[in-house]
Design goal:
conserved putative lor/sdh protein from methanococcus maripaludis s2 fold, about 35% strand
Length: about 375
């Protein structure tokens, strides 16, 4: 066999083997079936809820006093530091006493003179009484001496009142705090003339505002007023919303941690705004609340009721409706429409649409689709966050 013939035979054999290989390919490995996506599920927690309305308001002092003098004179001394806390009866200002001491001495001297005149008139009348019985003096003279005694008595009474007034004016030279609270800055320095009295041009010396307790004023609309009144009426409270407990937070606080009580609701709804004024009272032992400060207050707007709570991240939105995904017994995702309430302690209130045994998807919503299978991983019931 020649070399050419041998090469042709080998080529024919290789081609036949290749054709055989193409006709019977080796079996391929089949891919493993895809596992359903993993999601975290939890049963909704049950909690007693009270709906709250929230308002912005301002603190006001229970008592606010303008310190003014009742007598005129030169200011002699200031007995406080600007902005300090003062107690009722603390000495604040002293006005020069010397002119009023002189006036008191003059009033006492005039009183002594009036009493001397009264003593003379009484003795003169006593003599006239004996003489008129003896017919030595006429009835007219007796009446004149009687009148003189009465005039002397009236003069004594007037001078006694003048002495009491002078003593009172002398006491008014010491201005004391009429209430306990925080005093502002002094408006007049020692050495200046202070105008006193009861007229409108008296000199303002300082202001004092009470600190503890303190009031918080806010306004709410007519619909809220009706809701609060009916709620209080259902509770049998004849005073309507008075004494309703409320909570408050300051502008730099995250939670409503301060508690107080309503103590006043106005008797007229404002015709221009359609709102009515309410007021609550809060303890302020540390002086944190200051008159004029803004804050937010929550007022109960419903009786307590039982509701489910979930993390707000578990809530989905479909146009105007809200829904949650739940996993049934076959690990299939189902969609449930729910009615939402407020957020309480970091959790969303679900008023309607859920059952206690529902397994709600609280994590992995993007991997879940209604009707699809999932791999649920149980988590603890949602816990409220404390502020």
């Amino acid at each position: 066999m020649s070399n050419v013939t041998l090469r042709l035979c080998l080529a024919s054999t290789a081609a036949a083997l290749m054709l055989a290989a193409c006709g019977n390919p080796p079996p391929k490995a089949q891919p493993a079936p895809a596992q359903p996506p993993a999601v975290t599920v939890a049963q909704p927690a049950r909690k007693t809820i009270t709906d709250q309305d929230e308002y912005v308001g301002r603190f006001v002092a229970v008592d606010a006093i303008e310190v003014r003098s009742r007598v005129s004179g030169y200011l002699e001394k200031v007995h406080f530091t600007d902005g300090q806390l003062v107690k009722e009866g603390d000495l604040l200002f002293t006005i020069d006493r010397r002119p009023l001491e002189i006036a008191l001495s003059q009033a006492r001297a005039t009183l002594a003179q009036a009493r001397a005149n009264l003593a003379y008139a009484e003795s003169d009348l006593a003599r006239a009484s004996q003489l008129v019985r003896d017919r030595t003096v006429t009835e007219q003279v007796f009446d004149q001496r009687t009148q003189a005694k009465r005039v002397a008595e009236a003069s004594v009474a007037a001078q006694e009142a003048a002495v009491r007034q002078a003593e009172l004016d002398l006491q008014f030279t010491e201005l004391r705090a009429p209430i306990s609270g925080r005093i502002g800055d002094r408006r007049v320095t020692p050495g200046n003339l202070v105008t006193g009295g009861t007229s409108g041009n008296t000199t303002l010396l300082a202001t004092i505002v009470s600190i503890d307790p303190i009031r918080f004023e806010f306004t709410f609309d007519e619909a809220s007023y009706l809701r609060y009144s009916r709620l209080a009426g259902e509770a049998g409270d004849a005073t309507r919303v008075i004494a309703t407990p409320v909570t408050l937070k300051l502008l730099d606080e995250s939670g409503f941690s301060h508690t107080g009580r309503m103590d006043f609701v106005d008797n007229v709804i404002d015709r221009s705004s359609g709102t009515i004024r309410g007021r609550a009272s809060f303890a302020n032992p540390n002086g944190l609340f200051t008159p004029g400060m803004f804050a937010r207050v929550q007022v109960p707007a419903s009786p307590p009721y039982a509701a489910f709570v979930l993390p707000d991240a578990a809530i989905g939105t479909e146009q105007v409706r809200k829904f949650v995904y739940v996993v049934d017994g076959e690990n299939t995702v189902r969609q449930k429409y729910v009615t939402l309430g407020p957020i309480v302690e970091g959790l969303r209130v679900i008023k309607d649409g859920l059952a206690a045994e529902d397994r709600v998807i609280v994590s992995g919503l993007m991997r879940a689709r209604p009707g699809a299978k999932v791999t649920p991983q149980a988590a603890a019931a949602p816990q409220a966050k404390k502020d």
